[in-house]
């Protein structure tokens, strides 16, 4: 799976093959079973981040009334940031991250990332560009999502992430869309 990272670095940097290989040797890639929590709501903050090589991770929170609300799904070639730069002892995680499928993730922490950036400045530039692109898309997607009807939201998912509905349970997708599973079923029937 490290070949995915190699392709990514080749596409987004001019690092030599030797530099890319050195970076790959330093990275920690871990396999997580379906159902594994990366962090739970209420846990102490972490200084970890992840990059999805394979699999799907769901982000959700539980509201005061006990209702689970799905807020995101992370799939291949997407970063998951958990860095908390504020006062960690005064904070707790406001959401949970759980592997919806078996996942292969690059696992990093702030300290090791900073060391790698000092050694490979182009890696820092690539990461910054990746995060800028991700945040720009996330902001645009969120603005569209808020304005869209549930049916338009579903169509956007089908258009932009066509494999997602087949990878996750319908009730989680419905929660992400802000509707009931029954409403999602009606939308699917209308579209078909």
From TrEMBL:
Keywords: Activator. It holds the Pfam family cNMP_binding. SUPFAM superfamilies: cAMP-binding domain-like. The keyword Mitochondrion does not apply. The keyword Transferase does not apply. Coiled coil: none annotated. It comes from the Bacteria. Residues 11-132 form the Cyclic nucleotide-binding domain. This is Crp/Fnr family transcriptional regulator.
């Amino acid at each position: 799976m490290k070949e995915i990272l190699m392709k990514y670095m080749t596409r987004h940097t001019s690092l030599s093959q030797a530099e890319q290989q050195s970076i790959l040797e330093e990275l920690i890639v871990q396999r997580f079973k379906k159902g594994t929590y990366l962090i739970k709501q209420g846990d102490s903050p972490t200084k970890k981040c992840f990059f999805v090589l394979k699999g799907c991770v769901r982000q959700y929170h539980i509201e005061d009334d006990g209702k689970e609300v799905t807020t995101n799904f992370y799939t291949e070639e997407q970063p998951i940031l958990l860095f908390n730069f504020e006062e960690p002892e005064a904070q707790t995680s406001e959401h949970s991250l759980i592997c919806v499928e078996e996942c292969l993730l690059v696992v990093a922490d702030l300290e090791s990332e900073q060391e790698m950036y000092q050694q490979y400045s182009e890696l820092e530039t690539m990461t910054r560009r990746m995060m800028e692109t991700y945040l720009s898309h996330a902001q645009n997607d969120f603005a569209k999502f808020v304005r869209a009807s549930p049916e338009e939201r579903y169509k956007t998912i089908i258009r932009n992430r066509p494999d997602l509905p087949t990878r996750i349970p319908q009730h989680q997708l419905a929660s992400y869309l802000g509707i009931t599973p029954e409403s999602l079923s009606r939308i699917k029937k209308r579209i078909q």
